[in-house]
Amino acid sequence: MKSKIALKLSALSQGVGRGHRAYLLASLIAVGAALAVPAAPVHAQAQGTKIGFVSTERILRDSRPAKAAQSKIENEFKKRDEELQRLANTLRSEVQKFDKDAPVLSESERIKRQRQLADLDSDLQRKRREFQEDFNRRRNEEFSAIVEKADQAIKAIAEQQGYDLIIQDAVTVSPRVDITDQVLKALGG
Fold first, then answer.
1. CA-to-CA distance for 6 and 30, rounded, in angstroms?
2. pTM across the whole model
3. Across all residues in the chain, what is the average pLDDT?
């Protein structure tokens, strides 16, 4: 003996074309699943999840350890940067001198100086690349240590204040969940 609901469903499915049967079946399964799940206790719904946000960019830009690391790195690379500036100025002045002298130079002298300028330019480009690679490597070393300290501070804040989830990168964030200032304070500024 079929129940009234089963009879109605059977009649309904016979009236529905083949293409729509799968859709109808999926809808019925969804409704059945919704009816089968018991309602959550009221206190669990009201409790909610405590979520916080930390701006990694601000930590790596504004924290005291980040500023100290940036200053340290700049001091380490200052001489090399000045050397690159000197080489760029030398190349610029040599190019200007060549442009000025080119009309009166012999063909062989012009080719010789063009090669020298090309060699100077290649040397400068190579040194700039090496400088940038070394600078980035050194910066990554320093900043990875800051990220580790920040992660420890974030974990401590999460435990102390009962956060369930702390997100470090997001597209949009409400200021009420942003705890970046607390992390900056924990890092000393």
1. 16
2. 0.61
3. 80
